[in-house]
Amino acid sequence: MSKISDTFTKYKKVFIPYITVGDVNLSLTEELILEMSKRDAHIIELGVPFSDPLADGPTIQRASERALKRGINFPDIFHLVGKIRKKSNVPIVLMSYYNPIYKFGVQEFMKEAKSEGIDGIIIPDLPPEEASKIRKTKMDTIFLIAPTSTENRIKLIATLSSGFIYCVSVTGTTGARGKLEEDAKNLVSRIRRCTDKPIAVGFGVSTQEQVREIIKLADGVIVGSAILEVIEKYRDSSQLVKIVGDFIEYLIKGISSK
Amino acid sequence: MKLPNKKGYFGQYGGKFVPETLMTALKELEEVYLDIKKDTVFQNKINYYFKNYAGRPTPLYFAEKLTDVLGGPKIYLKREDLLHTGAHKINNTIGQVLLAKRIGKKRIICETGAGQHGVATATAASVMGLECIVYMGEEDIKRQSLNVFKIELLGAKVIGVYSGTKTLKDAINEAIRDWTANVRNTFYVLGSVVGPHPYPMMTRDFQSVIGKEARKQIIKLEGRLPDYLVACVGGGSNSIGLFYPFYRDKVTFIGVEAGGVGTEHSATLCYGSPGVLHGAFSYVLQTSDGQIKGTHSVAPGLDYPGVGPEHSYYKDAKRAKYVSVTDKEAVDAFHLLSEIEGIIPALEPAHAIAYVKKIAKEIGKQKIVIINLSGRGDKDIDIVRK
To answer: ipTM of this predicted complex?
Structure first.
């Protein structure tokens, strides 16, 4: 069992916030991660900035552009995770497009990521057909299933995915949405019929009500853009870390309260 | 060997590096495409539009004065500039929009750099009666305003792209995002031999009409095959369209990339390295961290940090040679062809002319060269006038 699957076994309902590394400077990024963990986020998803994030909506694109202006790269991210590991054992999942990983060297990347304490990897532009190099590694590899995935693909992806299965709630890119489609619920039950691995739902989740709705069916909820919007709004405030922490607490209430 | 193989690979290049949401649509597209490839009714329909609407076949013109002035090989120009909408792009958009109709998608989206593909897609969508949305970088909207106006005249909508470099690369990102969100009712007409499988294969096949015609024409005119084929390479659709039907012939392929100015360029095959961009594994211009670089070219249609996977394969297999010329050399060639042949070329194929100008003397007089004159220069008047 991996640290990630253990987390799902232990907590049953898992909350996964996402932030882009280097959206704010690295020491603030570190503080944000520790704060989110302190406020009971179970797993932290860290976005690796990329110049061409074609699966992402405008919020993550902007965060990515700001991070790239700081020149954030894998050595920075490994260093950051190494520092966090001295203070916290919270499971960390990286979300990165494939090209930076390919350029770094897939095997070297996996080795270093693992040794610095990264627990899983999500690569949104790497469907299972192209992922043979990645699958040979010991790291949890989390694949995405979309509302357009056929039953055969759901079975294939569910088999290959380790740690959890990322259920894409909407047909589209990342970004906060007022209303989640019925798609999300249908998809979770379609996946459930194929696997007993944990299922976490992401894309478009932005409110406590949505978290509450989703967690009735799924094992985990991922919130990204909504948190980045808060960071974007309060990025210059001295209270940023607390404000983000409060927002995490508000979202997590969707899991803990009835 | 079949190019591409069943998984969409040309050697080690190609593939489908896209979000899961698009995988089912790509598979469907591939299946329908392989069907229509064998369907004579469909092929006849494409040929009907090629002939009666787009103006095919295009002439293979012996550029006698250019040949004399350069003092080297006999130079023929494949006149894709004479096509409806002014460039080779219409070959591909007629094919893809007919395919969209066949699949039953009512909404067409595309990206455009120079605006030529946008105009060609809007044109095909107009005549086939489909809704059309064109994504275009803000930088390109500024420098190709004539094409923006044309696209709107044709009843399509232009959406400006403000992210990243605000050029073709980001227009493709935005088109892919739109496609991801609307994949159930939308067909993405991709303008070059780039992107995930089956696009590089499909676009190449539709553009191959260029090389098929040129091959017949040169044999009729000269009684033999040419020695060289020369074409500009941005994403690489006009060049692959000319090259591919000569793949098994003893003919040298030369792809000319945009050398830009100083250290700013978009010569992906000359200076790039393998990586993944826009759904395919191919050469890309990237930093040591794997971030895609901004590019520059005086020719907006070449201003792109990626290239089609089939070209990457040709490069590694040494089937084609890839070179570059500078902005200035291209603009000089633009003037030269306008003055001595009465043909105003687009700045993109002006790169191919510029390279032939450079090597004409060393090629020698006994040889025959075909240059793909992929588009006309009306759109570039404002750039050159500056």
So the answer is: 0.96
